[in-house]
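hey so i finally got around to running both of the ones u sent me last week. sorry it took forever, my laptop kept dying halfway thru and i had to restart like 3 times lol. anyway pasting them below in the order u listed, first the sequence line then the structure token line for each. didnt double check formatting much so if smth looks off just lmk and ill redo it

first one:
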Amino acid sequence: MAIDATRDALVLVDVQNDFCPGGSLAVPDGDQVVPVLNRYAERFGEARAPVFASRDWHPPKTKHFQAYGGAWPPHCVQGTRGAEFHPGLEMPAGTVVVSKGMDPEQDAYSAFQAEDERGIAFARALAARGVKRLWVGGLATDYCVKATVLDALRSGLEVQVLADAIRAVDVQPGDGERAIGEMREAGARFVTLGAV
């Protein structure tokens, strides 16, 4: 399946240190998505198709964190090493970073709740480039990947989930598999590197 630079975009979801082994909210084997995503990113770069990288970018105090009523330990706090992208992630020149979770009143799992450094919403940035189909990989399958995929489908975009470049938190055993089923049922297709 060829990449079409006039309609395709790659979305690297939250490949940040805190979600990788050794991080404060580590996804089991989360770092294993990095070399696979690098190969997807390389192909998108060669095709001159847009690449977006979403990141959690939380303030120190947010209702997302357990200390303030949320579900999670502190993670991806603005300006910390944990919030940085995994050092092995190789993003093509021109990759657009979109940040989410800055509002202390919002959880913001989906990249569709993110904005670029100029404050342009992710959906608007996609529309400005004529994007009709998203290729989505990253962390974690059962949270930010799922939320991004479902929002993309709801907004009328086609979605290809990179089955070989996602990993789940599995807070409850089977969460990742259930998330995959939910994305499929909503209309997402699942692809691997060999199909690109």
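and the second one:
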Amino acid sequence: MIKVQFIGRFVFLACAFLTALPAVADYKQAYAYFKQGQFEKAIQELKPDLDKNPDWEFGHRLAGLCYLGLKNNALASVELNRAIQLKSTAFATFYGLAQAYYNTDKLDNCVQILNQGEQYAKASEDLYDLHHLRGTVYYRQQKLDQAAADLAGAIRIKTDDWLDFSQLGAIYFNQNRYDEAIQTLQKALSLKPGDTATSGVLGKVYFKQGVAALSAKQYSQALDLFHKAGTLTPNDGYIFYNTGEACLFLANYADAEKAYTQALSLLPRNADVLTRLGLTYERQKRWPQALDAYQKANEISPSPTLKDSMTRVADQLKKPEEKKKH
């Protein structure tokens, strides 16, 4: 499972003036600072009116979102919780508080507050933010069915966020839904080319499909899938080991040798790789190399089968006619 970190998109208010204020000019200036991203100045403008009017829901909401913009999650939580206590009906209040909880790894609280505010998510952007953040939290919690439902819901609304596709593709992989995983992960990479986490999962999908094709004796198909996997995850020795297996079954010994050699560079103490490399040499009647590979494998993991292989190759080396050929 790939690991991701949610990067919260900041919530900008798009709401009407909700209650009468004693100082309209101050409110307008605070809101202007907020829209400009000057959050500290906005807070300074709000403080006098909040001191005079502690039950001003909109003021607490705006202050909370300013603190969120300043990455002060503790004060953001205080202000936004106060706005909710004052019966806020703006989804921005709940979403902002959920972000603060997410940023401090309070994932259960994040989901709880999103569920509480879901009734106020009416606009498509609000619905997207709801599904995106809640799906990400469920993903981190390994609640895959709930995560898949929310991420799919987010994608139905908006199709340009690579993270939604990447996470949903990883879920499909873990659910063994490989065709859907490939399609979804490819979309993620088209939106964010070169993302290593996404390409790593896609490589695993191709590898799993390749192993299935290999087991079904569909060797050419397996080779194609292993090639795709190796392109995406070139440091996985097991991909090259299985590539060698497919080549070996196709009697393509030169490519099998190349694949096993690559696998050995990544898995230098793997007896299975050395054993299969020895067999590849043996099939090519390269007796000294075969014996050397078998001996190294036997040093790592001794077995009667390897001893039989060494004896068999040693007997070939004793034959004069074979000595002349090599």
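quick thing i noticed on the 2nd:
The chain has three domains: 24-192, 194-265, 269-326.
anyway thats it, ttyl
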